[in-house]
Predict the structure of MBL fold metallo-hydrolase.
Amino acid sequence: MSNAALTVSRILHAGYLFECDGTRIAFDTIFENPFSRNCHAFPDVRFDEDQIRRQRFDAVFISHFHDDHCSLESLDLLDRATPLHIYCIFDELFDMVRQLGFTSVHPLRLNVPVAVGPFVVVPREAMDADVDSMFQVKAAGLNVLNVVDSWIDDTTLAQLVREGPWDMVLWPFQTMREIEVLAPSRAVPAPPSLPQEWIDQLRALDPRYVVPSSCQFLQEPWSWYNRAFFPISYARFAREVSAALPTAQVVRLDPSVSVLMDATSLRPAPPLSWVIPVGEQDVDYAYEGLAGVPDTADIARRFAPLTELQHARIMDYCRAGLLEKYGAVDASSDYFDRPRIWQLSIYDHAGQVTRFRYRLEPGGAAHPDDGSAPLGWTTDIPAAKLYAALELGESLTSMYMRINDTVFDAAIERELTHAEVVDDPLIRCLFSDAFGAYQAAQLHRLLARAPWPMNSHP
């Protein structure tokens, strides 16, 4: 066992390749830049798709269905005989992957080991077990915890401590401000340090090596999100974790970078040839908070104009489809348990706005409103992003939606202090029951353009 070793390579975001004794397993395989529509790799990389098509993985493990972890466009590059092990409570995802042509698709069960050659992979319970999972990976006498981008509760932490000692922990190092940027005029500043919960949990796990994991992306180059979304730099993570765990080593793995780990050491290994760094790689996040936020009109001017048919699609939705949808989704919210006037503002590529007013009734009914009652909620959104959400599977992370970016009357302001941003009526209508919209849009495109039978390798 003294010569046993494990190679760990970073692909992108939460994507990794593990190799041991000739067996290769991959996790959350994303081979796209940008991925999830508007997540641009940071540092920048490109992918050699021809090389990726020639890769053979003994298994691929997917931690959850979010599009930055499970992308059909990326899976489309893999041999269709590749065993896929997916953690997801929704049968629809498994159906879509099989429609793509994969013949060995397996649901993962929490705490049930999967053996692949010298590897044993055990899905572990994340805090939101209806959505995601973590992975314990054992091989060559080594023990690795891939937290993906999960949070860990006390029960699971106790279980993981018992599973130690840990050689390496891949830890999601960003407390992304994806909710705060939706309502920047009402958000509080980011905490000045890593969450104490992280420090306490890492101390309890006490690994030899800690890798700042997940994240590794920015939005479009012009986006104000790039200075407001990511409050934790690599440098800050390394400084605080090193101070809290003086015997651990913080190891940054950029895309393509590989390391060889054994029982006593960690040393560089040849990088992945099919993940190609572009430009400067020693880059870091810079957080400037929520100052200088541009108007939604200015953001909307960044996007190409919609076609007449696309414009008609979103107008029809605002006039009719949204009213029908609002009545069909769960409207349980303390704030909306009384009638509210909601204003939805749609900004086109020229920054021109079209506004809709609705009267929202308790229980889910919505009606057009042309009265003069005071507003109780506002939502602003670029037209291009609304269309993308309706037809292309755009996720909330890159919608540039702006919620309650105004001053209401005193009574409304008092009540809003107890309201949740994600209770927004448009968010509920677009996302409350839209499982797998991103993957469904991908599958539609892939099936439409495939010149080969989908049960064969492209």
In short: The chain has twelve helices and 24 strands. The chain has two domains: 6-277, 296-446.
